[in-house]
Amino acid sequence: MIQALPSAAAALERNCEQRSESGYLDKVQGGPGHRIVLFRGGRALMDANGLAYLRPADAGGHLPAGAVTVYLGRTLAGGNPQLPEGTDLVLKVLADDAGDLSWVPGGTFFSGYRDVGDSLGAGDAAVFIEAQAVANWHTSHRFCPRCGAATTPEQSGWMRRCTADGSEHFPRTDPAAIVAIVGADDRILLASNFAWEGNRYSTVAGFIEAGESAEQGAVREIAEEVGVHLHTTHYVGSQAWPFPRSLMIGFVAHTDDAVAVPDGTEVREARWFSRGELQAAVLSGDAVISRRLSIARALIEHWFGGPILEPGDALDHAPAGGRA
Ligand SMILES: [Zn+2]
């Protein structure tokens, strides 16, 4: 299994059974011990330590009554150095026009995961990702897909019910395959997209279509984007990527094709690297690869056999073990 993904081990006990009981959220919010994670416009409230975990007293009276409220879970031992074990976390999703926010504590600021994800500890990253995923769903599923009537949250924010026909709706996830392609000579094939800077290379990814297995989706996407046929795929791990609602399903896969053909619309270049070539290219700046704690990086390092050194690491030969 690949290691060092942000959410490799659960940081929270989600208490799925209890949270679906009516009144559970009120019970949690009635106590002084819970902490509040605040989201607004897809951004989380942060402070100098990472995610800001507001005390009820900090927020009391200021939160709009209509803010979507979600029970995120209870911290596990070692799950988050910012919080004691057993702390219940409640997400409040503020509307974009939430109005005056001058009450939020000094030194806090709203930030998106793409801007701060690299600097977060694993516990904060897991909470941020869960909050982002469920907040996105609430924002985009306010109306019933069957009849168009309004839906309202139930089950501590993990279900929405149609106010007209009573139908139940749950958070959605779109599966995507992400693949480290390995050739017969054991080199890796990385792609550079038109949307990226010219020297950035990564694994190839694409959405799995309706009616497809993850493996079929991986084989099809790789053929479409870089023109090689995969003859074997090995699942190695996954990562939630709620932008807006993906689950990245990671494979290391093999091909006998030596010539890659970029699709010319999404993929600008597909390039083979031996292990030595990739390490040298990263150190020289000839290639920039995905950041640490991403599944793309984990897949590349799974093939590589260990951490790939970055230019900053090489000066003191520090191990590239990621962030604490
Ligand atoms: Zn309905």
Automatic annotation (TrEMBL):
Residue stretches making up the Nudix hydrolase domain: 171-295
Catalysed transformations (reactions): a 5'-end NAD(+)-phospho-ribonucleoside in mRNA + H2O = a 5'-end phospho-adenosine-phospho-ribonucleoside in mRNA + beta-nicotinamide D-ribonucleotide + 2 H(+)
Superkingdom: Bacteria
EC number: 3.6.1.22
Keywords noted in UniProt: Hydrolase, Magnesium, Metal-binding, NAD
Family note: Belongs to the Nudix hydrolase family. NudC subfamily.
Name this protein carries in UniProt: NAD(+) diphosphatase
Native source species: Arthrobacter wenxiniae
